[in-house]
Amino acid sequence: MPPRSRRNRTTEQAQLNEAAQLADQLQVAGYTKRDIARIIDRDPSLVSQFYTKHKGAAFVPALQQVLTAVQAGGITDLPELAAIAARHTHRRTTASGTRARVRSKAVLITPTGSGTGRVGAQAIASGSSRLRPLIAEAARQGLRLAFTVRLAKTSYLHPSGSRTDSPGIRRDVIQRADHTEERAYGSAQTGGHDAADFARRVDATGGDVTAAVHQWLVETERIHPDAHILHLEVRTWRPR
Question: Could you tell me the pLDDT band of residue 140, with boundaries at 50, 70 and 90?
Answer without folding.
Answer: very high
